Amino acid sequence: MTTLPTGTVTFFFSDIEGSTRLIQRLGERYPDVLLTHHTVLREALAANGGHELRTEGDSFFIVFDSALQACAGAAAAQKALHAYQWPEGGIVRVRIGIHTGEATLVGNEYVGLDVHRAARVASAGHGGQVLVSETTRALVDHALPTGLTLKDLGLHRLKDLAQPERLFQLTIEGLPDRFPPLKTLEATPNNLPTQLTSFIGRDDQVREAKQLLAKARLLTLTGPGGTGKTRLSLQIAADLLDQFPDGVYFVPLSAIHDPELVPSAIAQALSISTTGQRRPIDALVDQLREKRTLLVLDNFEQVLDAAPVASQLLEGSAGLRVLVSSRAVLRVSGEQEFPVPPLGLPDLKALPALAALSQFEAVRLFIERAVAVKPDFGATNENAAAIAGICERVDGLPLAIELAAARVKLFSPQALLSRLEKSLSALGSGTRDAPARQQTLRGAILWSYDMLDAGARRLLSRVSVFARGGSLEQLEPVCGPVEDIGGDVLGGLDWLAEQSLLRRLPDFDEPRFLMLQTIRDFASERLEESGEAHAIRDRHLAAFIALAQQAQPHLFGPRRKEWLDRLEEDHDNFRAALEWAVASGNSRQAMSLSGSFWRFWQMRGHIHEGRARLGQVLSLPTSGEFPTERLAALEAAGGLAYWQADMEGAQRFYDESLALTRQIGDKLAIANAIYNDAFPILVNRTNIPRAKELLEEALPLFREGADDGGTARTLWGLGNAAYFAEDYAVATPPLEEAQALFRQLDDRFMLAWSTHTLGLVGLATGNVDLGRRCFSEALRLFVEAKDVSGIILQVDNLSVIARREGDPVRATRLAAAAVAQQTATGTGLGALLSQREGRTGREELTETAAATAWAEGQALTLEEATAYALDPKALPESLRNA
User: Fold this and answer.
1) What span, in angstroms and rounded, lies between the C-alpha atoms of 788 and 821?
2) Direct distance between the N- and C-terminal alpha carbons of the chain, in angstroms, rounded to an integer
3) Which of 134, 279, 283, 351 has the greatest CB tally within 10 Å of its CB?
């Protein structure tokens, strides 16, 4: 692989002028034309030392070691494009921009202001034209080969809104050298303010907003403080300059508090005189009537009563468009809202390699701003996870990321993340020339908070107890009653969402609202100050105990996935509720919640976490005072220890549970405790006769109580006892009876487990076909519910089937995938069973071949491993060329 240059390098950007029109004109012929364009460019640039970084559609991003090579490559490319015989109506004209500077190389990406500068240089040109920056000219002016000269085009403000740049045209002998005026800010009347920093990312938002503004004449960008609404609106306006020949005007309203003054502020920005008795709004309407103009009204949230002004101006001028940035919509006819999302974030649970990490907008912004304050800062494998964590902690908000990046002068990313996890006050202050409300993140949020009435403030603080959002079903009982917040909860939540302090989440059956973590921290402080934090957190705890208990009966039947997904959606809320119960010493509620919730931890692969949390709960000093709740928690702890393959730990929990149940429980409760107590010694094969004895004690109690589910589970247990005793003929009847009962009950969880055990019997008796059918059916049942623990075990089982059927490479890959997932989720039961069966997962392969297959399997995702286990032809992409 070619080593990319570092230090001072020359950046080359190009694209096809009028590509959209070309597509429409050529239709099906366009892909061939585009391919030719790519080929011509690549040959010319590679021949002159260009390193291709990426191609997007018709645009190229190339980097050169030397400015002279970049100019020679651009000239060669333009000559080749000009000489090519394009089809009728399909002439390709390419504009090129060249700029030399320094940028930090992160993986295969360059990060820095000079990269953006080069792109903007290119966007100022026309098809067939090559533009060169002042820094590049200084390096090549006296060294250009014959046939190439530079023409000074003067100072120009580019659409990155930065300081003016002196541009030069690379004139190529034999090619056209006259072009229209450059597409820079000078081409259209405007007052767009100079920006001292680059505009990072947001390409999708800029493109979407431009499309919306072409349809709706009033577009309102909404979002909380620090989202970057102002900067985004300025970039949209700069990109639209050539569509508004009569001007693009920025109207800052942050210093205006009286709605009556808004027309005057607009008139001032447009340099329209409003002296005398004539009303400013009338002067504006007259001035704009026949004009094609774009107004950018910034920070409209504090003058919302002036919204009719925008309507009056639009009614008076058919060529006018209005772009508004506000924390709340204007609520006027014809308005199109565009919620500004945070910057793109990587998934902390599956971080990409360093080379790909900088492609996420939030990470890129952090790195660029960090380099600006600390030139020797670099993103490395060691600090990449911390950088991603910082960006996630501040919700991808541009203001917060910039504040965080400024702190790298004092802290490493790792140290900064540690501080941010405790308090956002570690962000400090921003630049002194920023508006006061944006010098700190707290100031930006306080700006919105101060505009709320007392009821809305109280509601906002109460919502802060919800982690990662909540549904209306939970929010209403926790955040009410009506008299406390001055209206119904839904109406209040909608109002907070309109003020950009909450976000409405789409794609849910009922309304669901999310508070960004940065706002949540602020609101949580207000809740503590209110004196009602304890009561509100108790309500939140009660709401999620109720949800966990509501879900319990559904975790085994046909609606398993639906209810597991619902619990997954609120996993962070369950965590917050349990943490509060433990912190406040509420052992009864803590045991009630964890005892109701443990199956989710087990089924969705959070076993390590569940076991640790139950350890905290059972250690609370008052936990012994509530025997009923302690029983539920002991059974949960025993179950999670069992799934971790900690049979000794499981036995201790189940023994205590059985002793307590014999004291306070009825016959069915005792039967259930006996059933549980039998399993650790059964699976661990320490005393199979004793396990069988316990199960035979439980069975008549379940039958007497007409508990078909308990009866079926115990029959399954007896089948397991016979299997572990290698008495396979005795094992089959109770397993088949249990399986039939589970089908009748539609208990899909236990149907999968009884089918799994029948598969083990088939495998042990040499019936590989039965084993495959049983394991595959069990796997599909577990996949249906996204039951991670069960899926992992069946992938391991099917690895044995693959080996028996003569495919040791696939078998080893599947075994390795199972081990990787066991480690990640804490599901140790499969490893224990493999150990008991004497499986290594590498049989029938040489050491080298086994190591290769093992590494390939470890790299598979759970979804890839599942598909591969069910179908040998479902080979993951990563293995197709292996």
Assistant:
1) 9
2) 20
3) 283
- Select from 576, 571, 575 the least CA-distant residue to 603: 571
Banded model confidence at residue 881, pLDDT cuts 50, 70, 90: low
d(CA 354, CA 240): 35
- Tokens for 182, please give them: 């450059």
The CB-side HSE value for 243 (13 A sphere, CA atoms) comes to 14
Alpha-carbon 17 to chain mean position: 34
Return the pLDDT at 882.
56
**Which tokens is 243 given?**
């569509």
Tell me the DSSP string of 33-57.
HHHHHHHHHHHHHHTTT-EEEEEET
Strand-pair category, 320-326 with 293-298: parallel
| Polymer length in residues for the chain | 882
| Position 263, amino acid | P
Question: What distance lies between CA 741 and its chain's CA centroid?
Answer: 43
**Please, which residues have CB within 8 angstroms of residue 358's CB and are 6 or more apart in sequence?**
106, 107, 109, 111, 364, 367, 379
Give strand pairing partners of 96. 14, 130
DSSP 8-state secondary structure symbol assigned to residue 871: -
Over residues 575-584, the pLDDT tens digits come to 999 999 999 9
For 301, other C-beta atoms within 10 Å of its C-beta total 23
Among 308, 299, 296, residue whose Cα is nearest residue 332 = 308
Ordered DSSP codes for 256-305: ---GGGHHHHHHHHTT----TTS-HHHHHHHHHTT--EEEEEE-GGGGGG
CA distances (Å), origin 538, targets 456, 459, 576, 602, 734 = 21, 16, 11, 26, 47
Tens digits of residue pLDDT in 387-432: 999 998 888 888 888 888 888 888 899 999 988 887 766 665 545 4
- Which pTM was predicted? 0.71
Q: Is residue 817 within 8 Å of 795, Cβ to Cβ? A: yes
d(CA 606, CA 609): 5
Rg of the chain, C-alpha, whole Å: 33
